[in-house]
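Issue 218. Parser rejects a valid record. Input:
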Amino acid sequence: MVTIDTNIRLEAPAQYTNYAFDSMCQHPDGFYLGANENGLFLLDGVDDNGTAIEASFTLPLDDLGSHMHKRLRFLYLGLEGNGDVLVTVSFDELDDTHEITFSIPQEHQQTGLMRPVSRAVFGRYLRLKVENVNGSVFALDSIDVVPIGLRSCLRG
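Output the parser choked on:
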């Protein structure tokens, strides 16, 4: 089942997949409840009955303001959390991808991390997917890229 949760104040939707609830709410005291045909359930803890919680989001395609083909030189993340975060870089909805793991050095402290990006992945429209690894928790504050415009580009 898929549940959509919307923060009305921020106009920010979240989508929950493999979610056994058809609705959820935040109690005025700050905790969350999920509901289904079997009743109300308190949603708390760092896992789902012992199973790591998978979290990910994919940004929409973006040409970064340029019609030129490009590749990325570096990818910067500003974040906090624990464990690892995996970023998948792709272009133009093609199968070529480059996966980059960012290891958060100090638990729950703001940090900025930079990683190089493979020269083999290029195109006009960039797509980034960000996901946790083994149930790690993360809060992403910023994503910055250093694009390099390519004068000509042939795909074969």
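Fixed in the parser; the record now loads. DSSP finds no helices and 15 strands in the chain.
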